[in-house]
Amino acid sequence: MAATSSYRICPLCEACCGLEITHEDGKVLSIRGAAEDGFSNGYICPKGVSLADLHEDPDRLRKPLVKRNGRFEEASFDEAFAEIERGLLPIIEKHGPDAVGTVLGNPVAHRYGLSLYAIRMLRELRSPYVFSASTVDQMPKHRAVGAMFGSWLSVPVPDITRTDLLIVLGGNPMASNGSMWTVPDFRGKARELRARGGRLVTIDPRRTETAKVADEHHFIRPGGDIYLLLGMAHTLFDENLVRLGRLGEWINGLKALEAALKPFPAEEMAPLCGMEAETVRQLARDLARMEKAVLYGRIGTCLQSFATLNNWLVDVINILTGHLDSEGGAMFPKAPAFAHNTKGKPGQGRGVPVARRHSRVARSPDVMGEFPVSTMAEEITGAGENGIRALFSVAANPVLSTPDGEKLAAALDQLDFMVSFDIYLNETTRHANVILPPPSALADDHWDISFSQLSWRNYARYSEPLLQKDPEQPEEWEIIQRVVALLRGLGKDADIAALDDEMTREEVEKAAGPMADQVMAAVSAYRGPQRLLELELRSGPYGDGFGANPQGLTLAKVKAERYGIDLGALQPRIPEILRTPSGKIELAPEEFIADLNRVQDTLADPIPDLVMIGRRDVRSNNSWMHNLPTLAKGPNRFKALINPEDARRHGLKDGDLAEFTANGHTIQAPVELTEDMMRGVISLPHGWGHDQPGTKGAVAARNPGANVNRLIATATRDPLSGNSVLNGISVSMRRAQDVVTQAAE
User: Fold this and answer.
1) pLDDT tens digits, one per residue of 328-340
2) d(Cα 305, Cα 9) in Å, to the nearest integer?
3) What is the dihedral of CA 404, 408, 413, 415, to 10 degrees?
4) Residue 733 main-chain phi, psi, to 5 deg
5) Which one, 234, 272, 278, 551, has least CB within 10 Å?
6) Residues near 158 by Cβ (< 8 Å), separated by ≥ 6?
7) How far apart are CA 663 and CA 76, in angstroms?
8) Burial label, 678 (beta-carbon count in 10 A; 0-12, 13-18, 19+)
9) What is the set of domains in the chain, with CATH numbers?
10) Are 283 and 232 in contact (CB under 8 A)?
11) pTM, whole model, 2 decimals?
């Protein structure tokens, strides 16, 4: 068989780059960026190249694992589902669905079949105890836009190719190529921004990769974002710089906002964020006076005690300066499928439900249908007879990615039964009774559900399966559908195709009513997630309306275009995008205004001597990437970055092994001295700690690092969103050699 070149959308990060993959007889020969893909324009990062490693990884699970007598054994899928039927269903029958929890990991957002059918599983299970990676990195943004615009994914993103000023707060798009913003080749777009006379400004406790290509960089004290943003917003009112433009008629709460900002002038806020008052004011002036400008806040803004307020104020400042929903500002993508803000009556809706339920132990409210993942351990161990007794983990490794992983690991050992959907035997799945692996990512088709809603440009792109899967390996959606069949009492041998037909028809009848027969007939060429995608595309904002608009999109039309269909630059969408009950932008949600009292209570708090922030690298955004040779090679990335002055004060030299203590735990890491770090701040990367027994990751185990999340308390959360506070954690530091010497004495 001759070598074949196939197009593939990379499923490993939010950039969603188009790839050209040459393969022969099931082997990947080369991977390069797809130059003709108008969305990513040939860009590729090391993660895209590592898809070959992921496909060929000998540690990737090919068959289910079933734990017998405390040890995992390979099993057939039939045997695995029989074990789930024996172990899980009696728990639900005796204790009810609330006895089962589900935790979802980042890959759920990158595999559309997994995403769509995991939702089905959750609906069938009917348990409120859902947790995900969202509450360790992004829930504050959902919480903010939900209250302001009426839907969880109405997230405005920088219109980078038309702006003249981009201010990046707590983000590092050079490493991420966007985060809650799908923007492949940020470096190239930043270069074009500067070439046309524009400016890039970064604000971060670390001089990041993005800062190093920026026109200016400002250090900010970790946790100080709230004071900076309040000072900037106050300045806009104080200096009469508010310019609402056409959005004026679509805004509620302007006067309430102005009154709430009175106690936070820049002169009082600046020392708290570690910046000069004139700098705070000038940043506000620059945004207000530029015709095309945008403030973008990302992960650093989400990992703090005032995370929701941070993300609210980012959008507030863009609104007050006239840069929301305008060319070159912060704009709303218009996805071709699955976007709530393209459905129903435009310009008005029911808004988003918050705090419909509260967790049993911490009494944390649910947000976006989830409880904080940091409450999961206590929901297993602290709720008595009513606690979680069984767990589904779906492509998740919370033992490494959430606070106090040891506490969670101990809790997982107390479960009566656990099922993991995963390709690895890792720090979390080692606690499972059954592990169900999906096919290789290269044997799966691809559509971006979430990221097309966060995209720098509107596009419709689809990629077919690249390689053939093992005939005995079910598709990912079929694996989950079999679990759904078990939950419906249909048994492990249920007809999955018939059940999929039945459930899809139920969904179509709700949406199409008496036209259900015609709609089902129109999509009869597809099954599984492809059929759900066809339904969404044809009924979506660019769709053919099942024949009503013959020029509109169908899945066949998207498939016919190898590199997708360009749907154009971002366009203004207010008021059409709004789904608030008022039909207006809620500029001053009551609960956000009330939380400003908590900010006032912190104004006299002492500033800690040394605090910790996280760090992500283009080669190690997630823990499982540490097992891929292409990404693991090169210099050691598990190290603490420290300002030389802090190192001198603590008796440390470059390359020393240091000990860091907080939350009653201690970890060790080699140190690297660098002026890129603000004084009083150290940076340690997340997702490490690959030294746990019972895991299978040979490459990762060669450089296991340590789990930085051990240093973080589970109870430290932003109360509005439930997001964990992972940055600005006070830590103590000393040389590991000093520790050994003192112990010997």
Assistant:
1) 999 999 999 999 9
2) 36
3) 160
4) -140, 140
5) 551
6) 166, 181, 183, 294, 296, 329, 330, 331, 456
7) 43
8) buried
9) 139-340+581-599 (3.40.228.10), 606-744 (2.40.40.20)
10) yes
11) 0.96
